[in-house]
Amino acid sequence: MYEEVIQEFYNNRDENESRAMSAYMKNQFPFLGLKKPVRSRLQGALLKECKKEKSINWNFVKMCYSQPEREFQYLAIDYLITLKKYILTCDIVIIEELILERSWWDTVDMLAGTIVGELCSNDSDLIIKYILKWASGDNLWLIRSSILFQLKYKEKTDKELLKYIILRNSDSSEFFINKAIGWILREYSKTDKTWVKEFIVNNKLSPLSVREASKYLGE
Question: How many domains does the chain contain in total?
Answer without folding.
Answer: 1
